[in-house]
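Input record, target 12 of the design panel.
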């Protein structure tokens, strides 16, 4: 038997923009390393959506490398590794390595390839077909320290991506990069996240190259009251977020066209798929207004906004859209067992489980 505190996930998310050197076309990409239930792992990945796993009530356990792109051809592609093929080093510098895929504080590289036939034959992979290889250097510019790693908002990427045989160059000057991390025992509900490193001041008209903004409903700071409202129409998803402290208020109004977005697929550490409409895009746009003691001090135009929204009803029925949550503190939003987001975060237990798992090898 495994202790309950060994159940959980960690995820490292990277998103950025690349350019076709021949045509100059811009394209946004994402790369995620998602570690699920390392203490339950074995040689092969345990996929919770596989009929055998569901029949035997097995919890999922693997490293999933998720890659993909937004836009007219938005798609996500998944590659899974069992824990005997995964090496996690939590010293400084932090690193994850499994087969062709590698991630550390300042670099990532890998190959993920799934054919359309394989994706159709394996619905438990929760993805479609596609092929991506990458080699990138990562420089996190604004970051907070979290143990042996830095969780950053604005990041500069340098290197190249090969997407379905087509080459894209990634440059620090125009990559609009973001790098972040998170962990927990279950996913937040509602799941709301906004981030952008492409901001322009309405006062000066200049781009703020050293600035970024982020809002994450699962990771709010103490003494900050947060109000969120999200909704869907036939064509768009809209976010309205207000954060208040004693002297400051920040208001973000962001929208993104659905035809440039995709529905992210995950299974929770318990093996369920509650989030069936988890919208994710990389081309959101809108405004972020900053107030101090009730006075507007800055109004920012945000583009290339990474944006996520999804929520589910507790009866496990998929969300049909149009739901709005008003006036609720994000830090008080309970999970399905009635725990707050802070209580569900695991408080580092998953990190201990990974370390212990590697020690036993």
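The sequence produced for target 12 reads:
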């Amino acid at each position: 038997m495994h202790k309950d505190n060994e159940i959980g996930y960690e995820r490292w998310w990277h998103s950025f923009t690349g350019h076709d050197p021949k045509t100059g076309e811009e394209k946004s990409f994402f790369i995620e390393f998602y570690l699920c239930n390392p203490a339950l792992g074995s040689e092969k990945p345990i996929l919770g959506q596989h009929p055998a796993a569901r029949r035997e009530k097995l919890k999922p356990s693997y490293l999933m490398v998720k890659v993909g792109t937004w836009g007219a051809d938005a798609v996500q592609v998944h590659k899974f590794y069992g824990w005997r093929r995964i090496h996690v080093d939590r010293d400084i510098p932090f690193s994850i390595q499994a087969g062709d895929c590698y991630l550390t504080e300042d670099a990532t590289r890998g190959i993920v390839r799934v054919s359309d036939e394989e994706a159709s034959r394996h619905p438990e992979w929760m993805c479609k077909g596609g092929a991506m290889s990458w080699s990138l250097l990562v420089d996190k510019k604004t970051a907070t320290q979290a143990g042996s790693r830095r969780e950053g908002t604005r990041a500069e990427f340098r290197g190249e991506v090969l997407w379905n045989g087509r080459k894209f160059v990634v440059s620090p000057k125009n990559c609009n990069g973001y790098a972040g991390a998170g962990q927990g025992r279950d996913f937040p509900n509602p799941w709301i996240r906004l981030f952008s490193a492409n901001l322009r001041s309405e006062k000066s008209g200049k781009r703020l190259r050293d600035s970024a903004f982020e809002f994450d409903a699962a990771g709010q700071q103490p003494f900050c009251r947060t109000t969120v409202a999200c909704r869907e129409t036939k064509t768009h998803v809209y976010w309205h977020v207000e954060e208040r402290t004693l002297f400051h208020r920040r208001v973000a109004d962001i929208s993104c066209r659905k035809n440039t977005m995709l529905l992210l697929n995950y299974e929770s550490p318990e093996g369920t798929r509650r989030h069936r409409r988890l919208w994710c895009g990389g081309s959101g746009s809108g405004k972020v207004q900053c107030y101090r003691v009730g006075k507007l001090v800055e109004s920012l135009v945000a583009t290339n906004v990474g944006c996520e929204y999804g929520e589910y009803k507790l009866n496990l029925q998929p969300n049909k859209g149009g739901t709005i949550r008003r006036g609720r503190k994000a830090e008080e939003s309970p999970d399905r067992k009635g725990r707050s987001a802070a209580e569900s975060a695991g408080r580092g237990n998953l990190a201990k489980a990974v370390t212990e798992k590697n020690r036993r090898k």
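DSSP finds four helices and 23 strands in the chain.
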